[in-house]
Amino acid sequence: MHLNILVVEDNNTEKAARLLPEDWQVTYCDNSYDAIQLIKKEDSFQLLMLDEYASPLSAYQTFDYLKSEIKTEVPVLVLGEEGENGILEHYQNKMAFIKKPVTSNDIKIINDLVEKNFVPKEVSDKAYSLEYLNVISDSNFEFIKETLIIFRTSVKDKLIQLREALGQNDFKSVAEIAHNIKPSFEMLENKTSVHICDLLNNRAPKEEVPELVTELESQFDKINTELENDFPELL
Questions:
Q1: CA 31, CA 46: separation in Å to the nearest integer?
Q2: CATH says 131-234 is which class?
Q3: Starting at the edge strand that comes first in sequence, how are the strands of the sheet with 76-80 ordered?
Q4: Which tens digits make up the pLDDT trace of 121-175?
Q5: What percent of the chain has pLDDT over 70?
Q6: Which sign, positive or negative, has the C-alpha torsion 83, 84, 90, 91?
Q7: What pLDDT, on the 0 to 100 scale, is given for residue 90?
Q8: pLDDT per residue over 195-205, tens digit each?
Q9: Which of 6, 42, 72, 218 is deepest in the core (most CB within 10 A)?
Q10: pLDDT digit string, tens, across residues 11-47
Q11: SS3 (DSSP) at 20
Q12: Is domain 4-118 given the CATH code 3.40.50.2300 in the classification?
């Protein structure tokens, strides 16, 4: 498996990185703050490797920040002396600890951690993503299911109102409705729909509005179809 790993550089992590397979891509940065900035810019990292007490944020603080502020859970490989008692259990399958110095036998720990969290990038062509809902609900399926039901019914009603407003050339209402439903599409990470809502809310040229509304309806239909296929219980 070809991996893309981000390493916060120090003497120990450098030594650990040298043990990684040659076909793994390794990116180095100077501290945990720089690591956070890189992950903000690029979502392809499959593992973050850093010392337990890296600065300015420790390994545990870095993971918490990534989860709460950036809404991502890049698995973290912690290098340390003993590991804080009991703390790794809190992070479950998202973190692993390797005692320094790292040896070639530790490669299996790295592989296991990444494989548990590996999501093929091919899923990104779907019309929706549940990543945000999983993060805010700690993967509570009942919460997610109820949210999806509300999304389908409320956005459907709003799109009907949007089409009616367009038929009456009420462009002010079109903008208000688009602004109202934008967070619903953001929640499911449909960037095309979010962009269309922005255009409608910012008073796109009147001649472009009908086409934008049609495309927004098309995106909603696509999301709906995929949800029905993925979650038949929503029908």
A1: 18
A2: mainly alpha
A3: 25-29, 4-8, 47-51, 76-80, 95-99
A4: 444 468 999 989 988 998 888 999 999 999 999 999 999 999 999 999 999 999 9
A5: 91
A6: negative
A7: 67
A8: 999 999 987 88
A9: 6
A10: 778 777 777 777 778 899 999 999 999 998 877 788 8
A11: coil
A12: yes
- Residues 51, 8 contacting (CB under 8 angstroms): yes
Average pLDDT over residues 4-13: 84
Residues 6+ apart with CB under 8 A from 128: 188, 189, 190, 223, 226, 227
Which residue in 223, 162, 166, 151 sits closest to 193, CA to CA? 223
Are 197 and 212 within 8 A, CB to CB? no
- The kind and range of the H/E element at 37 are helix 32-41
What letter represents residue 218's amino acid?
S
Beta strands in 71-140, from DSSP E residues, in sequence order: 76-80, 95-99
Query: Residue 82 is encoded by which pair of tokens?
Result: 């003993």
β-partners of residue 48 are 6, 76
Report residue 78 as tokens. Answer: 């912690």
- pTM, 2 dp: 0.50
> Taking Cα atoms as reference points, which of 113, 86, 95 lies closest to residue 50?
95
Which DSSP state fits 170?
-
Which residue ranges make up each domain of the chain? 4-118, 131-234
CA–CA gap between residue 136 and residue 123 (Å, rounded):
20
Closest alpha carbon to 104 in 19, 45, 230: 19
